[in-house]
């Protein structure tokens, strides 16, 4: 059965499906790195109910992968098997509620949350101005910046599990730690409810401007990059370890460690997913050799290599 046949078969079995199901769908034009192979199936649900309906009737042996706006994501060149779910317009609502609270769908960009909070005079959410990506990703990995994290402002989240059941989770249920969410791994977050504090709009906007200026000066925001590549080890800065290991500017194919901020990998043009992953593994090896510290990937690496296998240990680039 071809992927097109599988998509047609699934659609026939799901007569009430409102979202769009596409076979052999490109992912390279979605991810910020602009690399990677296709999704065997790509499903864009219309809303939370549509997502729950799809998952409740989706064959249990069909792998399911969720992606957001495409930041913090490296798709390998062989693409992603099974069905990839991308939450879009139906998850893009944002609203202000009483008590300095804000509710945002998973597809709302983090920067839009910061701006909406500022316009409503809600302080405490401006750090989202410095996070690339969307609220779904922030919920799924306790996204943070400038000394604050999602766990500091989240009241509750909604999620749909692999069986199509809808759950409401408190921040305690999320079991957050640094760049990690301890909720069940099959949960697909659909929205979050956040609480800030009363503030002055002009002051909040000024703080957001400072964050934006910092990003512009310190990070390669105009390059094809996925964001911070590695998590900061306890008591350390990943970029300092990478710099000390001599990896600033290191390149593999069309991929390079940013000269501006060396915890960012960039696609200079023509890079493959393999180039970027090999470069990242080279950086990890160099840091381990120099400092004894093993960096942990913050960027999600998904899918299969071009040969249809999951890479076990990419070759290390020569420095």
CATH architecture of the largest domain: 2-Layer Sandwich
Low-confidence stretches: 314-319
CATH third-level topology of the largest domain: Uridine Diphospho-n-acetylenolpyruvylglucosamine Reductase, domain 3
Oligomer: single chain
Secondary-structure-based class equals: alpha+beta
Number of strands: 19
Total helices: the number is 7
| Rounded mean pLDDT score | 94
Content of β-strand: 15-25%
| Order of H and E elements | HEEHEEEEEHEHEEEEEEHEHEEEHE
Q: Helix amount, in percent?
A: 25-40%
Task: Please tell me what the overall shape is.
Answer: globular
- Radius of gyration, taken over Cα atoms and rounded to an integer in Å: 20 Å
| Spatial ordering of strands, largest sheet | 6-7-13-11-12
CATH class of the largest domain: Alpha Beta
Biggest sheet descriptor:
5 strands, antiparallel
Total number of distinct structural domains: 3
Distance between the termini: 45 Å
Overview of the molecule:
By secondary structure, the protein is an alpha+beta fold. Helices cover 26% and strands 24% of the residues. It folds into 3 domains: 3-89, Uridine Diphospho-n-acetylenolpyruvylglucosamine Reductase, domain 2 (2-Layer Sandwich); 92-217, Uridine Diphospho-n-acetylenolpyruvylglucosamine Reductase, domain 3 (2-Layer Sandwich); 224-302, Uridine Diphospho-n-acetylenolpyruvylglucosamine Reductase, domain 1. The strands form 6 sheets. It has a 5-stranded antiparallel beta sheet. Strands 1-2-5-3 form a 4-stranded mixed beta sheet, covered by helices on one side. A 4-stranded antiparallel beta sheet has the order 15-18-17-16. A hairpin with a 7-residue loop joins strand 17 and strand 18. Helix 3 packs antiparallel against helix 5. The longest helix is centred in the C-terminal third of the chain and has 19 residues, at 273-291. Mean pLDDT is 94; it is low at 314-319.
């Amino acid at each position: 059965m071809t992927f097109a046949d599988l998509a047609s078969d699934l659609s026939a079995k799901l007569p009430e499906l409102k979202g769009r199901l596409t076979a052999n769908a490109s992912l390279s034009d979605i991810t910020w790195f602009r690399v990677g192979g296709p999704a065997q199936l790509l499903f864009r649900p219309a809303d939370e109910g549509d997502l729950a309906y799809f998952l409740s009737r989706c064959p249990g042996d069909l792998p399911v992968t969720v992606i957001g706006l495409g930041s913090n994501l490296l798709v390998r060149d062989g693409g992603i098997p099974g069905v990839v779910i991308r939450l879009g317009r139906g998850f893009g609502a944002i609203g202000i509620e009483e008590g300095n609270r804000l509710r945002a769908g998973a597809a709302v960009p983090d920067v839009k949350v910061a701006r909406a909070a500022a316009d409503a005079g809600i302080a405490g959410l401006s750090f989202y101005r410095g996070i690339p990506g969307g609220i779904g990703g922030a919920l799924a990995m306790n996204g943070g910046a400038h000394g604050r994290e999602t766990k500091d402002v989240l009241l509750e989240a909604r999620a749909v599990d692999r069986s199509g059941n809808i759950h409401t989770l408190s921040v305690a249920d999320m079991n957050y730690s640094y760049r990690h969410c301890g909720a069940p791994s099959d949960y697909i977050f659909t929205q979050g409810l956040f609480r800030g504090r009363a503030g002055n709009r002009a002051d909040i906007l000024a703080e957001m401007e400072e964050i934006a200026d910092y990003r512009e000066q310190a990070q390669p925001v105009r390059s094809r990059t996925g964001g911070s590549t590695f998590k900061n080890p306890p008591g350390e800065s990943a970029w300092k370890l990478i710099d000390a290991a001599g990896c600033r500017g290191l390149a593999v194919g069309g991929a390079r460690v940013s000269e501006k901020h060396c915890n960012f990998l960039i696609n200079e043009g023509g890079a493959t997913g393999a180039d970027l992953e090999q470069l990242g593994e080279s950086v990890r090896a160099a840091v381990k050799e120099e400092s004894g510290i093993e960096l942990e990937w913050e960027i999600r690496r998904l899918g299969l290599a071009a040969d249809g296998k999951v890479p076990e240990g990419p070759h290390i680039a020569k420095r």
